[in-house]
Design goal:
The chain is an alpha+beta fold. It has two helices and eight strands.
Amino acid sequence: MRLIQYSLPHTNIDLDILLFLEDPLSRPALGRTIHQAISRAQARIDRLGDDWLSGSDDPFYVTNTVSGKCFLRIDSRRESGRSRVTYKTLVGVFLGLWNALYMERQAWAVSLRVMVAGVVAGHGAIADHELNGPGIV
């Protein structure tokens, strides 16, 4: 295992990404999955504007089996029934994963913690199998 701490430039989003070096992923599948996640979250913003994650998108789950298996899941921490992650934050998380994993050729299963302004806002995971719980690889 190896920990990457990544701060998305010009934002208050920080990611703690724990790499599982014994669980490699297909790099094309990882890239396609992250790109699909960015596109889906951005399409939601374009259609309805930014807002807290809706119940139907929490967890935010993306599956790709086109160029290898890759599953991505982000769960927000809920407070008083409301998500602590917005769709714009989600896009930022996915851009951070693109930069820290895909661009740096770190194609491994991961567990991650999402922080916004120093407060834990959510957890997530990426793996080559279905993810059944928050941050579970």
